[in-house]
Inverse folding.
Protein backbone atom coordinates (compact mmCIF):
# COMPACT_ATOMS: atom_id res chain seq x y z
CA UNK A 1 0.00 0.00 0.00
CA UNK A 2 1.52 3.31 -1.08
CA UNK A 3 -0.44 5.69 1.15
CA UNK A 4 -2.45 5.62 4.31
CA UNK A 5 -1.46 4.51 7.79
CA UNK A 6 1.35 2.53 9.34
CA UNK A 7 0.61 -0.36 11.68
CA UNK A 8 3.08 -2.42 13.71
CA UNK A 9 2.05 -5.93 14.72
CA UNK A 10 3.34 -8.15 17.54
CA UNK A 11 2.57 -11.66 18.75
CA UNK A 12 2.45 -13.11 22.23
CA UNK A 13 4.30 -15.66 24.28
CA UNK A 14 6.22 -13.88 25.60
CA UNK A 15 8.89 -14.86 23.14
CA UNK A 16 6.84 -15.83 20.09
CA UNK A 17 7.19 -14.67 16.51
CA UNK A 18 4.87 -12.29 14.70
CA UNK A 19 6.04 -13.87 11.45
CA UNK A 20 4.90 -17.30 12.63
CA UNK A 21 1.41 -16.19 13.54
CA UNK A 22 0.44 -12.65 12.55
CA UNK A 23 2.18 -12.59 9.17
CA UNK A 24 1.92 -16.21 7.98
CA UNK A 25 -1.27 -17.51 9.62
CA UNK A 26 -3.51 -14.59 10.42
CA UNK A 27 -3.45 -11.13 8.82
CA UNK A 28 -0.48 -11.20 6.45
CA UNK A 29 -0.78 -11.29 2.64
CA UNK A 30 0.29 -14.93 2.23
CA UNK A 31 -0.29 -18.35 3.77
CA UNK A 32 1.93 -21.41 3.42
CA UNK A 33 0.75 -24.48 1.55
CA UNK A 34 1.03 -27.93 3.10
CA UNK A 35 4.16 -28.61 1.02
CA UNK A 36 6.07 -26.06 3.11
CA UNK A 37 7.48 -24.29 0.07
CA UNK A 38 4.68 -22.56 -1.85
CA UNK A 39 2.27 -19.81 -0.91
CA UNK A 40 -1.32 -18.75 -1.52
CA UNK A 41 -2.88 -15.35 -0.97
CA UNK A 42 -4.97 -14.10 1.93
CA UNK A 43 -7.64 -11.82 0.53
CA UNK A 44 -8.36 -10.45 4.01
CA UNK A 45 -4.78 -9.27 4.54
CA UNK A 46 -4.40 -6.08 6.55
CA UNK A 47 -1.77 -4.66 4.23
CA UNK A 48 -4.71 -3.78 1.97
CA UNK A 49 -5.64 -1.23 4.62
CA UNK A 50 -2.31 -0.11 6.01
CA UNK A 51 1.46 -0.50 5.72
CA UNK A 52 2.10 -3.31 8.21
CA UNK A 53 5.33 -4.02 10.11
CA UNK A 54 5.70 -7.40 11.81
CA UNK A 55 8.16 -7.28 14.72
CA UNK A 56 9.98 -10.35 16.00
CA UNK A 57 10.92 -9.20 19.46
CA UNK A 58 12.80 -9.22 21.73
CA UNK A 59 16.22 -10.36 20.47
CA UNK A 60 16.27 -14.15 20.41
CA UNK A 61 12.78 -14.45 18.92
CA UNK A 62 12.59 -15.74 15.36
CA UNK A 63 15.25 -14.11 13.19
CA UNK A 64 15.92 -11.30 15.69
CA UNK A 65 19.33 -11.60 17.29
CA UNK A 66 21.89 -9.86 19.46
CA UNK A 67 25.67 -9.71 19.23
CA UNK A 68 25.73 -9.93 23.02
CA UNK A 69 25.12 -13.46 24.27
CA UNK A 70 24.00 -12.25 27.69
CA UNK A 71 20.97 -10.60 26.06
CA UNK A 72 19.55 -14.08 25.56
CA UNK A 73 19.79 -15.03 29.22
CA UNK A 74 16.70 -13.09 30.22
CA UNK A 75 13.97 -11.04 28.62
CA UNK A 76 11.29 -8.78 30.00
CA UNK A 77 8.54 -6.30 29.25
CA UNK A 78 10.64 -3.18 29.85
CA UNK A 79 13.50 -4.21 27.61
CA UNK A 80 11.10 -5.32 24.88
CA UNK A 81 9.36 -1.92 24.89
CA UNK A 82 12.70 -0.10 24.81
CA UNK A 83 14.11 -2.25 21.98
CA UNK A 84 10.94 -1.91 19.93
CA UNK A 85 11.02 1.87 20.31
CA UNK A 86 14.65 2.01 19.15
CA UNK A 87 13.75 -0.19 16.19
CA UNK A 88 10.94 2.19 15.18
CA UNK A 89 13.25 5.18 15.36
CA UNK A 90 15.85 3.46 13.18
CA UNK A 91 13.20 2.25 10.76
CA UNK A 92 11.83 5.80 10.36
CA UNK A 93 15.32 7.10 9.68
CA UNK A 94 15.70 4.45 6.99
CA UNK A 95 12.26 5.26 5.52
CA UNK A 96 11.63 8.94 6.35
CA UNK A 97 8.62 9.15 4.03
CA UNK A 98 6.60 7.38 6.75
CA UNK A 99 7.46 9.78 9.58
CA UNK A 100 4.35 11.93 9.35
CA UNK A 101 1.83 9.18 8.77
CA UNK A 102 -0.68 8.00 11.35
CA UNK A 103 0.67 5.08 13.35
CA UNK A 104 -1.23 2.27 15.07
CA UNK A 105 0.08 -0.66 17.12
CA UNK A 106 -1.72 -4.00 17.09
CA UNK A 107 -1.02 -7.29 18.84
CA UNK A 108 -2.51 -10.42 20.28
CA UNK A 109 -2.21 -12.56 23.36
CA UNK A 110 0.83 -11.46 25.42
CA UNK A 111 1.13 -8.45 23.14
CA UNK A 112 -1.60 -7.15 25.43
CA UNK A 113 1.52 -6.20 27.40
CA UNK A 114 3.81 -5.30 24.47
CA UNK A 115 1.37 -2.97 22.71
CA UNK A 116 0.38 -0.65 25.60
CA UNK A 117 3.96 -0.58 26.88
CA UNK A 118 5.34 0.45 23.49
CA UNK A 119 2.59 3.07 23.16
CA UNK A 120 3.48 4.41 26.62
CA UNK A 121 7.16 4.61 25.62
CA UNK A 122 6.29 6.49 22.44
CA UNK A 123 4.12 9.00 24.30
CA UNK A 124 6.89 9.56 26.85
CA UNK A 125 9.56 10.36 24.25
CA UNK A 126 7.15 12.33 22.06
CA UNK A 127 7.04 14.97 24.80
CA UNK A 128 10.63 15.95 24.03
CA UNK A 129 10.67 18.14 20.89
CA UNK A 130 14.23 17.00 20.18
CA UNK A 131 13.11 13.41 19.66
CA UNK A 132 11.64 11.93 16.49
CA UNK A 133 7.87 12.37 16.77
CA UNK A 134 5.87 9.20 16.13
CA UNK A 135 2.30 10.06 15.14
CA UNK A 136 0.65 7.43 17.34
CA UNK A 137 -3.15 7.34 16.99
CA UNK A 138 -4.29 4.18 18.72
CA UNK A 139 -3.74 0.56 19.70
CA UNK A 140 -5.56 -2.67 18.92
CA UNK A 141 -5.59 -5.74 21.18
CA UNK A 142 -6.59 -8.81 19.18
CA UNK A 143 -7.72 -12.33 19.98
CA UNK A 144 -5.14 -14.79 21.32
CA UNK A 145 -3.02 -17.01 19.14
CA UNK A 146 -1.36 -20.39 19.62
CA UNK A 147 1.59 -19.01 21.54
CA UNK A 148 1.05 -18.95 25.26
CA UNK A 149 0.11 -21.93 27.35
CA UNK A 150 -2.12 -21.57 30.42
CA UNK A 151 -0.82 -22.81 33.73
CA UNK A 152 -3.08 -25.07 35.80
CA UNK A 153 -2.91 -22.84 38.87
CA UNK A 154 -3.19 -19.10 39.40
CA UNK A 155 0.10 -18.69 41.23
CA UNK A 156 2.86 -16.18 40.62
CA UNK A 157 5.10 -18.87 39.16
CA UNK A 158 2.62 -19.33 36.31
CA UNK A 159 2.27 -15.71 35.26
CA UNK A 160 4.34 -15.88 32.09
CA UNK A 161 2.16 -15.98 29.00
CA UNK A 162 -1.17 -16.17 30.82
CA UNK A 163 -2.06 -12.52 31.12
CA UNK A 164 -3.09 -10.27 28.31
CA UNK A 165 -4.60 -7.39 30.29
CA UNK A 166 -5.33 -8.34 33.89
CA UNK A 167 -4.03 -11.54 35.52
CA UNK A 168 -6.72 -12.00 38.13
CA UNK A 169 -9.77 -11.77 35.88
CA UNK A 170 -8.07 -13.54 32.98
CA UNK A 171 -7.33 -16.54 35.17
CA UNK A 172 -10.72 -16.62 36.79
CA UNK A 173 -12.19 -16.29 33.32
CA UNK A 174 -10.23 -19.34 32.18
CA UNK A 175 -12.13 -21.57 34.58
CA UNK A 176 -15.38 -19.68 34.01
CA UNK A 177 -15.01 -20.56 30.35
CA UNK A 178 -14.38 -24.21 31.14
CA UNK A 179 -17.59 -24.31 33.18
CA UNK A 180 -19.78 -22.26 30.84
CA UNK A 181 -18.84 -24.50 27.90
CA UNK A 182 -19.34 -27.76 29.81
CA UNK A 183 -15.63 -28.62 29.71
CA UNK A 184 -15.60 -29.17 33.47
CA UNK A 185 -18.37 -30.01 35.91
CA UNK A 186 -20.26 -27.44 37.97
CA UNK A 187 -18.87 -29.09 41.10
CA UNK A 188 -15.27 -28.67 39.93
CA UNK A 189 -15.92 -25.06 38.99
CA UNK A 190 -17.44 -24.36 42.41
CA UNK A 191 -14.42 -25.83 44.21
CA UNK A 192 -11.97 -23.83 42.09
CA UNK A 193 -13.75 -20.56 42.81
CA UNK A 194 -14.03 -21.43 46.50
CA UNK A 195 -10.52 -22.68 47.25
CA UNK A 196 -8.22 -20.89 44.78
CA UNK A 197 -6.83 -17.42 45.34
CA UNK A 198 -6.53 -15.66 41.99
CA UNK A 199 -4.95 -12.52 43.40
CA UNK A 200 -1.61 -11.60 41.74
CA UNK A 201 -0.21 -11.32 45.27
CA UNK A 202 -0.87 -14.98 46.02
CA UNK A 203 2.36 -16.98 46.26
CA UNK A 204 0.91 -20.31 47.41
CA UNK A 205 -2.30 -22.26 46.97
CA UNK A 206 -4.12 -24.62 49.29
CA UNK A 207 -4.15 -28.35 48.73
CA UNK A 208 -7.89 -28.05 48.04
CA UNK A 209 -7.12 -25.66 45.18
CA UNK A 210 -4.54 -28.02 43.71
CA UNK A 211 -7.02 -30.89 43.95
CA UNK A 212 -9.79 -28.86 42.29
CA UNK A 213 -7.66 -27.59 39.41
CA UNK A 214 -6.29 -31.08 38.78
CA UNK A 215 -9.87 -32.05 37.96
CA UNK A 216 -10.01 -29.32 35.29
CA UNK A 217 -8.49 -31.51 32.58
CA UNK A 218 -10.25 -30.68 29.32
CA UNK A 219 -8.49 -33.40 27.37
CA UNK A 220 -7.24 -33.26 23.80
CA UNK A 221 -8.90 -30.01 22.74
CA UNK A 222 -7.42 -27.01 20.95
CA UNK A 223 -7.55 -24.39 23.70
CA UNK A 224 -7.40 -21.58 21.12
CA UNK A 225 -10.53 -22.79 19.36
CA UNK A 226 -12.44 -25.53 21.12
CA UNK A 227 -14.44 -26.23 17.97
CA UNK A 228 -11.44 -26.56 15.65
CA UNK A 229 -9.98 -29.86 14.41
CA UNK A 230 -6.61 -31.05 15.67
CA UNK A 231 -3.46 -31.66 13.64
CA UNK A 232 -2.96 -35.40 13.16
CA UNK A 233 0.12 -35.32 10.92
CA UNK A 234 3.15 -33.12 11.55
CA UNK A 235 4.71 -33.83 8.14
CA UNK A 236 4.61 -31.59 5.11
CA UNK A 237 3.11 -33.07 1.94
CA UNK A 238 4.87 -33.73 -1.39
CA UNK A 239 2.26 -31.62 -3.17
CA UNK A 240 0.14 -28.81 -1.72
CA UNK A 241 -3.31 -29.69 -0.48
CA UNK A 242 -6.24 -27.57 -1.55
CA UNK A 243 -6.28 -24.60 0.80
CA UNK A 244 -8.47 -21.63 1.65
CA UNK A 245 -8.16 -18.86 4.24
CA UNK A 246 -11.76 -19.65 5.24
CA UNK A 247 -10.89 -23.25 6.17
CA UNK A 248 -8.47 -23.41 9.09
CA UNK A 249 -5.72 -26.01 8.77
CA UNK A 250 -4.60 -27.08 12.26
CA UNK A 251 -1.21 -28.18 10.90
CA UNK A 252 -0.29 -24.71 9.63
CA UNK A 253 2.40 -24.29 12.30
CA UNK A 254 4.41 -27.09 10.70
CA UNK A 255 4.08 -25.66 7.19
CA UNK A 256 5.32 -22.26 8.37
CA UNK A 257 8.24 -23.83 10.25
CA UNK A 258 9.37 -25.69 7.13
CA UNK A 259 8.96 -22.62 4.94
CA UNK A 260 10.84 -20.12 7.10
CA UNK A 261 13.74 -22.52 7.58
CA UNK A 262 14.33 -22.81 3.82
CA UNK A 263 17.62 -21.18 2.80
CA UNK A 264 16.11 -19.64 -0.34
CA UNK A 265 13.26 -18.10 1.66
CA UNK A 266 15.64 -16.63 4.23
CA UNK A 267 17.78 -15.16 1.45
CA UNK A 268 14.71 -13.63 -0.19
CA UNK A 269 13.66 -12.10 3.14
CA UNK A 270 17.24 -10.90 3.86
CA UNK A 271 16.88 -12.82 7.12
CA UNK A 272 19.36 -14.89 9.12
CA UNK A 273 22.26 -12.98 7.61
CA UNK A 274 24.45 -13.90 10.60
CA UNK A 275 23.75 -17.64 10.14
CA UNK A 276 22.24 -18.36 13.55
CA UNK A 277 23.31 -21.56 15.24
CA UNK A 278 19.69 -22.63 15.75
CA UNK A 279 16.59 -23.05 13.59
CA UNK A 280 13.98 -20.39 13.22
CA UNK A 281 11.27 -21.30 15.73
CA UNK A 282 7.74 -19.93 16.18
CA UNK A 283 8.47 -19.47 19.89
CA UNK A 284 11.95 -18.84 21.24
CA UNK A 285 14.00 -21.59 22.84
CA UNK A 286 16.89 -19.18 23.30
CA UNK A 287 15.50 -16.75 25.90
CA UNK A 288 15.82 -18.50 29.26
CA UNK A 289 13.93 -16.23 31.66
CA UNK A 290 11.29 -13.51 31.59
CA UNK A 291 12.07 -11.12 34.41
CA UNK A 292 9.36 -8.46 34.52
CA UNK A 293 5.67 -8.87 33.79
CA UNK A 294 3.16 -6.65 35.61
CA UNK A 295 -0.01 -8.34 36.81
CA UNK A 296 -2.24 -5.76 35.14
CA UNK A 297 -1.98 -3.44 32.17
CA UNK A 298 -5.18 -1.55 32.97
CA UNK A 299 -3.43 1.56 34.42
CA UNK A 300 -1.46 1.89 31.18
CA UNK A 301 -4.64 1.63 29.11
CA UNK A 302 -6.22 4.34 31.24
CA UNK A 303 -3.22 6.59 30.72
CA UNK A 304 -3.27 6.03 26.96
CA UNK A 305 -6.95 6.88 26.82
CA UNK A 306 -6.36 10.01 28.90
CA UNK A 307 -3.83 11.07 26.28
CA UNK A 308 -6.40 10.80 23.51
CA UNK A 309 -5.49 7.41 22.04
CA UNK A 310 -8.17 5.02 20.85
CA UNK A 311 -8.04 1.54 22.34
CA UNK A 312 -9.69 -1.41 20.61
CA UNK A 313 -10.04 -4.72 22.45
CA UNK A 314 -11.11 -7.72 20.39
CA UNK A 315 -12.18 -10.95 22.05
CA UNK A 316 -13.98 -14.06 20.91
CA UNK A 317 -15.92 -16.94 22.32
CA UNK A 318 -13.94 -19.75 20.65
CA UNK A 319 -10.79 -19.63 22.74
CA UNK A 320 -10.25 -20.78 26.30
CA UNK A 321 -7.50 -18.16 26.62
CA UNK A 322 -8.52 -14.56 27.39
CA UNK A 323 -12.07 -15.07 26.21
CA UNK A 324 -15.25 -13.06 26.66
CA UNK A 325 -16.58 -14.42 29.93
CA UNK A 326 -18.80 -12.05 31.87
CA UNK A 327 -16.23 -11.75 34.66
CA UNK A 328 -13.59 -10.45 32.25
CA UNK A 329 -15.97 -8.01 30.58
CA UNK A 330 -16.96 -6.63 33.99
CA UNK A 331 -13.30 -6.11 34.84
CA UNK A 332 -12.95 -3.84 31.84
CA UNK A 333 -16.30 -2.06 32.03
CA UNK A 334 -15.85 -1.29 35.72
CA UNK A 335 -12.87 0.83 34.75
CA UNK A 336 -13.68 2.04 31.24
CA UNK A 337 -17.06 3.65 31.82
CA UNK A 338 -17.20 4.75 28.20
CA UNK A 339 -16.48 1.31 26.80
CA UNK A 340 -18.46 0.19 23.82
CA UNK A 341 -19.40 -3.40 23.23
CA UNK A 342 -20.40 -4.03 19.65
CA UNK A 343 -21.90 -7.24 18.40
CA UNK A 344 -19.95 -8.66 15.50
CA UNK A 345 -22.80 -10.31 13.64
CA UNK A 346 -22.30 -11.51 10.10
CA UNK A 347 -23.87 -8.47 8.45
CA UNK A 348 -21.97 -6.04 10.66
CA UNK A 349 -18.70 -7.68 9.70
CA UNK A 350 -19.63 -7.24 6.06
CA UNK A 351 -20.56 -3.61 6.63
CA UNK A 352 -24.19 -4.15 5.74
CA UNK A 353 -26.01 -3.76 9.04
CA UNK A 354 -26.09 -0.35 10.67
CA UNK A 355 -28.92 -1.24 13.03
CA UNK A 356 -26.88 -3.33 15.46
CA UNK A 357 -24.09 -0.76 15.66
CA UNK A 358 -26.47 2.21 15.91
CA UNK A 359 -28.28 0.44 18.75
CA UNK A 360 -25.00 -0.07 20.58
CA UNK A 361 -24.06 3.56 19.98
CA UNK A 362 -27.31 4.87 21.43
CA UNK A 363 -27.15 2.62 24.48
CA UNK A 364 -23.59 3.66 25.29
CA UNK A 365 -24.28 7.39 25.32
CA UNK A 366 -24.50 7.32 29.11
CA UNK A 367 -23.64 3.78 30.12
CA UNK A 368 -21.95 0.63 28.97
CA UNK A 369 -23.98 -1.69 26.79
CA UNK A 370 -23.40 -5.31 25.86
CA UNK A 371 -25.56 -6.41 22.95
CA UNK A 372 -26.15 -10.11 22.46
CA UNK A 373 -24.05 -12.06 20.01
CA UNK A 374 -26.50 -13.23 17.38
CA UNK A 375 -24.51 -14.76 14.54
CA UNK A 376 -20.89 -15.84 14.01
CA UNK A 377 -18.68 -13.73 11.76
CA UNK A 378 -17.68 -15.22 8.46
CA UNK A 379 -14.80 -12.81 7.91
CA UNK A 380 -12.30 -10.79 9.86
CA UNK A 381 -13.26 -7.20 10.58
CA UNK A 382 -12.45 -5.17 7.44
CA UNK A 383 -10.02 -2.49 8.56
CA UNK A 384 -9.85 -0.65 5.25
CA UNK A 385 -13.24 1.05 5.61
CA UNK A 386 -12.48 1.81 9.26
CA UNK A 387 -9.10 3.37 8.51
CA UNK A 388 -10.12 5.21 5.38
CA UNK A 389 -13.46 6.46 6.63
CA UNK A 390 -15.25 4.84 3.72
CA UNK A 391 -17.84 3.04 5.80
CA UNK A 392 -20.43 5.04 7.72
CA UNK A 393 -20.98 2.33 10.32
CA UNK A 394 -17.27 1.96 11.07
CA UNK A 395 -16.83 5.73 11.09
CA UNK A 396 -19.56 6.17 13.71
CA UNK A 397 -17.97 3.58 15.96
CA UNK A 398 -14.48 5.03 15.49
CA UNK A 399 -15.68 8.51 16.44
CA UNK A 400 -16.74 7.39 19.89
CA UNK A 401 -14.40 7.78 22.88
CA UNK A 402 -12.18 6.11 23.84
CA UNK A 403 -12.34 2.30 24.24
CA UNK A 404 -14.19 -0.11 22.00
CA UNK A 405 -14.53 -3.81 22.61
CA UNK A 406 -15.68 -5.93 19.69
CA UNK A 407 -16.96 -9.33 20.77
CA UNK A 408 -16.66 -12.07 18.18
CA UNK A 409 -18.76 -15.18 18.30
CA UNK A 410 -17.17 -18.21 16.71
CA UNK A 411 -18.24 -20.57 14.00
CA UNK A 412 -17.74 -24.31 14.25
CA UNK A 413 -16.12 -26.11 11.32
CA UNK A 414 -18.56 -27.12 8.58
CA UNK A 415 -18.37 -30.79 9.53
CA UNK A 416 -19.64 -29.98 13.03
CA UNK A 417 -22.60 -27.85 11.93
Amino acid sequence: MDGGRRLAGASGGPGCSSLAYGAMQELGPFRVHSDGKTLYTNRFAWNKAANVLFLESPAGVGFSYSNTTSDYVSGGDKRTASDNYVFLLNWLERFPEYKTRDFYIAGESYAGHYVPQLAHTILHYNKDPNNTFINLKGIIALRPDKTDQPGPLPTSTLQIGNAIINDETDRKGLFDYFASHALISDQTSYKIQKYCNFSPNATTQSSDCYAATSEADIGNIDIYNIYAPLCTSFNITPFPKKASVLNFDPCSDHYVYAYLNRVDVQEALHANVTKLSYDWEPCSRVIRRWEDSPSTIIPLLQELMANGLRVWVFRDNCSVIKNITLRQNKALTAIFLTAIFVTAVKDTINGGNETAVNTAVKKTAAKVSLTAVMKPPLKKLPLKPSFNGGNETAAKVLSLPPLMMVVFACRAPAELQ
User: Anything to note?
Assistant: Residues 144-163, 334-401, 412-417 have pLDDT under 50 and may be disordered. The two ends are 38 Å apart (CA to CA). The CA atoms of residues 59 and 68 lie 10 Å apart. DSSP finds 14 helices and eleven strands in the chain.
